[in-house]
Known about the structure:
Elements: E1 4-6, H1 11-19, E2 24-26, H2 44-57, E3 65-75, E4 78-80, H3 86-96, E5 100-110, E6 115-126, H4 131-141, H5 155-160, E7 161-165, H6 168-172, H7 176-183
Parallel strand pairs: 1-2, 1-3
Antiparallel strand pairs: 3-4, 3-5, 5-6, 6-7
Amino acid sequence: MDRIILASASPRRKQLLEWAGLPFDVVPGDADESFPADLRVEEIPVEIARRKAAWVRTRVENGKIILAADTLVVVDQQVIGKPVDRADALRMLSLLSGRMHQVITGVYINDSKKESAFTETTEVWFHPLEISGIEYYVDNYKPYDKAGAYAIQEWIGLTGIRSIRGDFYNVMGLPVSRVLQQLKLFT
Length: 187
């Protein structure tokens, strides 16, 4: 398989593809991450991933496989994006404390001839979190580039997550196994 273009600046997605042994280059996709209010929650991350891929498509040679993804955290059908500051991160983690939320990653792959788009959903349950633990995490890990203000592979995931149902790597930002299966369609 030719080198894939990862249309993402996410260090976690890069790490996951490295672990999978895929040859790839990174060209971060610059796309508007707003979405229409009437879009179904499951459609939002695919739409944003599609925009990232379209932006990258105009900057790479034709025929390259472009892989784009976007991850959302959803609680009670409310989309929780990336925190804008410390107070917002504290608010988000307090909202997730003691509850179940969904992590939905939308993936879009194309090679200018064909495309594949899908979402992967993982359910995550947090233990009730003490405010001191939330403050410790935010102050020490600065989760401002993470949907829901946390990374499952960091301290808060190790100490605060009670259980998950679904793909662990999806919570990190990319359902790698499913991506690999879809990439077979492009060979």
